[in-house]
UniProtKB/TrEMBL annotation:
This is UDP-N-acetylmuramoyl-tripeptide--D-alanyl-D-alanine ligase. Its main location: cytoplasm. It is found in: Cytoplasm. It comes from Octadecabacter arcticus 238. One of its GO terms (molecular function) is ATP binding. Residues 126-313 form the Mur ligase central domain.
Amino acid sequence: MAQDTPQDTPPETAQTASQFTILWTSHDADAATGGKSTAKWDATGVSIDTRTIQTGDLFVALSAERDGHDFVAMALAKGAAAALVTHRPDGVADDAPLLIVPDVLAALSALGQAARARTSAKVLAITGSVGKTSAKEMARAVLSRQGRVHAAEASYNNHWGVPLTLARMPQDCDFAVIEIGMSNPGEIAPLSRLTCPHVAMITTVGPAHLQAFDDINGIAREKAAIIDGLVSGGVAVLNADTETSEILQRYASKREVTQVLFGQMSRTWALKHVALAQGKTLVQADTPNGPLMFKLLTAGRHFAMNGLGILAACAALGADPVQAAMDLGQWAPPAGRGTHEVVTLDAAIEHETLILLDDAFNANPISLTAALEVLASYTPHDNVGRIIKGRRVAILGDMLELGPHENAMHAETANDPSIPALHLIHCAGPRMRHLYDALPDNLRGQWAESADALARQAAQLVDGGDVVLVKGSKESKISLVVDAIRKLGHPDAT
């Protein structure tokens, strides 16, 4: 199957805009990009991927691991309205509809800028070391009950993902939620300026991508740069509890923007109580409108914090935060970010199941602490399985991009406050070996050099009645263990 995006990029899913609504005409796209169309065309969407392209899409021939120009003929054959290119590729007909520009990525950014300029939508931009995508999905869930929302279906938060998300934005949407990420210094401010948000939210600051920065303070300053793109009168919604909150607040003060703080240390959006139990979270908070309670159908103190931040952001956007609090119960985390599922090991035996917590998309010390707290909040099921006694089991893969102290950071997890509540910890990868060696003997399960090697032992790692957390950085491939555990399951008896 043709692939014209990086291999670790999730395929596109259905676009927010109706497939029957014209998103871009050749005239408008020419004006936005300064390019020249070879024929008149109307596009109902924008795509960078021939695997998922829809009839009527404008195909953007980006160059990544493969040159998108190699896939233009295929895109047109699949019904693309036109292709955004720097030249007519070989094998493409002379009369094919093309939008020719000097630079494809720059033209995509220009489309995004034009789309942002022509909409009256209220725009929320979200960044943070942990929780960007979950917070974006929370915002989508609650704002969709109060208007038409545009947001990327996947975690499109980089130098091409943000322009792509903007370029797909319908002119008549009421709200837009844009996720902005970074791997290196200097990446967030340009994307925020392109986005021009009314509200910018920072979920938290932690040691993700620390290898690219001198220290966590540098990460905080980079995250704070999302404030640079705020429109006049914009609002910065900031985590009051992160250790670098003062840096965020100083940055906002220098930019003279309105600040709204959320968390236990906030005087306005104050987190008062969080209770975790069997996959659910109950939250009590004080808000400018009085006490508020909301419930999440997934467990996690970090989700409670993000939820409170989203309510503050909704209020700043002019939406109803009370209605949003009620609608938070409709949200569920995206795949690989803390999802809860039941795996039936033997459909013929009652309760011969285990609970699988799939958190295999990303990991750093902050998110690992949050995930372990969630695992500790569950009660395993006794009197089933080989071992009879249900267990809380963690299966952990390497945390990447933590910098020169990464081995010590892995070992330090042995002192996490949730560790005593666990029964068994399996580890995969050379970095996680440092945690494995630091664990008390009674908690040590299996260690393997790679996630693939650990996945081959899946049947020995877990048992009926267990609650199993699988977590690690995406590049550690710990999701192979998730897949292997799922394959242990059987369909429910009917």
